[in-house]
Predict the structure.
Amino acid sequence: GNSVTQMEGPVTLSEEAFLTINCTYTATGYPSLFWYVQYPGEGLQLLLKATKADDKGSNKGFEATYRKETTSFHLEKGSVQVSDSAVYFCALSDSDYKLSFGAGTTVTVRA
Amino acid sequence: DTAVSQTPKYLVTQMGNDKSIKCEQNLGHDTMYWYKQDSKKFLKIMFSYNNKELIINETVPNRFSPKSPDKAHLNLHINSLELGDSAVYFCASSRGGNTEAFFGQGTRLTVV
């Protein structure tokens, strides 16, 4: 079956630091890949997505590239802010009517 | 305009009670889901419906019964609540496979 493995947290950074969260996946078909963000006390929001190999998703300064050869979709941001403190989830969707999520990575950015 | 809305946001109840959580989406999506998020933030699919038909039932105890009266609604009824049912429950919808899902704000269920 499909599965997603993402970097264990928690991650603590200073403002303006570089953030990377690793994500790898296993899928039988040709999935779409997503990063979701969950701010404290809120639901999940779609951060970015990529639907085929070599696509790059980007939003709010975050980027991730769909790498089929390494089955990866790592999330990066060049300069984080305190407001980026949240839980980040990598996910995939195949033709199986569900999203499979990674375990989530808690990111805390200090001023 | 809330795309996926679920009620209530908080639910505190005693063991053994029966409770329901309601979910509605105004996105015109055909597929709706219930996810459970545990205290470690891990998200697990419970049910998936497509065009009001149950597609996925991921080994959820039969105390949990989803009901989809129409494509815009997917409610979750829970019988005989147990302490271990305490979690945040998220409703979501999507256009189907290979597409992103849109999530509600969650229902924090606490069983005491």
The first strand of chain B starts at residue 4 and ends at 7. The CA atoms of residues 52 and 70 of chain B lie 6 Å apart. Chain B has a mean pLDDT of 95. DSSP finds no helices and eleven strands in chain B.
